[in-house]
């Protein structure tokens, strides 16, 4: 089987209007129920993000960011920050309760930072994706960026962004791949329209399992190569900086060189964080 062919076709699938209509109807019913409940209690209750279990114990608690009060708030803040930045600003005309789509690396990390700072929540890490693979909602026809990027030992694609990240983690070079979690993003005048920055939540780890294509499982502490597990695809020449995302129900992709690529199959999967 040609792995290069497998790796192509990032993010294929289309928005399903029937599913969106059903979700919108359910959302409106729930909104009416809450409004009546508030009226009976004599005061309006503050809306909260549904609570989930801690990230490493996620059952069905993962959330999919949709165009509700939270989604509108996040998009408003994000679009104000990245106004005029092509492929980063998201001007999609979403309907109520429609999934926030068109995920790419700078959008995902922007949303992630806001969730971490304001809602004690964040996008799933690669470890959480693998550990909770069977519980991810609607994964068959969607993709979802993680809270992470991968940097590889050799110079290559997205080299300026790779150098930025190496500086942020205090390294001049590396000998094995690293995963870097929870980077910040800021608008910039470069060709891509953004730069990576540090954040209060940034951390990084060696990722020897990204040295080659294979299968991954979670051993209770970290991701490891295994005969049984979820397929992972990596760059053969181990170069540059790459996005790390779940591609449908098929594999974890750690060789994405187009950080701005997106389509309407993209989803934003997030979870509550342990304090």
How much of the residues is beta strand, in percent?
A: 15-25%
Segments where pLDDT lies below 50 for 5+ residues? 1-24, 37-60
Structural category: alpha+beta
Q: Helix and strand string, N-terminal first?
A: HHEHHEHEHEEEEEEEEEEE
Structure commentary:
With 275 residues, the chain is of the alpha+beta class. The chain has one domain. Helix content is 27%, strand content 22%. The chain has six helices and 14 strands. The longest helix has 25 residues, at 17-41.
Name some characteristics of this structure.
single chain; 275 residues; alpha+beta; nine-stranded mixed beta sheet; three-stranded antiparallel beta sheet; 6 helices; globular; disordered N terminus
Topology:
Elements: H1 3-7, H2 17-41, E1 63-64, H3 69-81, H4 105-119, E2 121-123, H5 126-131, E3 143-151, H6 159-168, E4 178-181, E5 184-187, E6 194-197, E7 203-206, E8 214-218, E9 223-225, E10 230-233, E11 241-247, E12 251-256, E13 266-267, E14 269-272
Parallel strand pairs: 3-13, 10-12
Antiparallel strand pairs: 1-14, 2-14, 3-4, 3-11, 4-7, 5-6, 8-9, 8-10, 11-12
In short:
The protein has 275 residues and is α+β, with helices and mostly antiparallel strands. It has helices spanning 3-7, 17-41, 69-81, 105-119, 126-131, 159-168; strands spanning 63-64, 121-123, 143-151, 178-181, 184-187, 194-197, 203-206, 214-218, 223-225, 230-233, 241-247, 251-256, 266-267, 269-272.
